[in-house]
Amino acid sequence: MNLDATMLNDYQDVHTFSESRYAELGAVNLAKNSTEKADWISPDVIQKISEISSLREVEIPAIIDQEVTVTEVPGFEIPANLSTSGVIKGTAYDIFSGFRHYPAQYANNTVKEEFDLQHKIKKVNYGMAKKLDEIILSRLEGRKTQVLPLGTAQVSDGTKTFAFNVTTDTLEISKEAQKEYMFSNLSRIVEANEIGGDYEIVTSRAGLAAAKNEWAKYGNSNEKNLQALGFPMPDQLHETGTIIPGANNFNGYYVRNGSIAMYANFPADFRMNTKVGSSEWSISDMELPFIRMRGNVYTNLAPTNAEALVKAGRDTNLTMTHFQEMALWVRVYFFEEFNSDLSKRPNSVIKIVGLAS
To answer: What pTM was computed for the model?
Structure first.
């Protein structure tokens, strides 16, 4: 008897592998850190944002900065110096995704059900976080400073130049200036323009390589006083694949904490934990992975014929079966620190470019 036909030619491992890749989404982390420092938004407003309907807007009053009248003549002619007010308006975005899951599909499959379910959840969360990353960067682009009149020439040293390009509204950093002095000089530029504070940075992938290498080269106790160079803490340095460097070493944003804030919104049925038959509405107990915000979660179970999932043949496990589905909805409000005239007043969101030469 010939046994060749009964031999196991292919070995199928019961352990499953996914080729998906997950890297830092730096704009999300920067905005999350910035939100914690947005002390110009009161707790009452944050609470109202979480439950407000899309039919209503959120407006925060702000006093416009103005020059006061000062004279050298005392008397009853007292300058009025009246205040002028403006408003900060929030902008809402919806990020929505989800998946379906057919448990019976795994009864005749070497892929384990639990592995694939967790993979779907992780993949959907990461995809939503990438969309959030894009939205944050679009907000930063819209709020980038259009003027930066003071300090750039003073911190430049030979080939280590910093120059504000008034055509593209970007702070251009020469190749030599991207090394050990970059962060120290950036902090001095914002201080010179009276927008100093605690800043974080987000760039394209590997955009901070030169600065990090310079830091690593000397360590913590060698001959250079790196503390004096203003090198930020590691959690203040962010990179994201959403920013494309193009012909530059990097593109990015230098942002003061508190300049941008984002808050989640939860519609009524999700807040009320509504249940209708097999459908349930809820709010996630914890922040969603990668997104770093709590989300609205909808789940449902329903009967179905899922034979179409198998391309060749007929799997009777799927003839009279059911599916589980989950929807994730992150509704997020963005607020930016008040600036009455972006064309004239330096803003604490600075677009930066690391030149390749």
So the answer is: 0.90
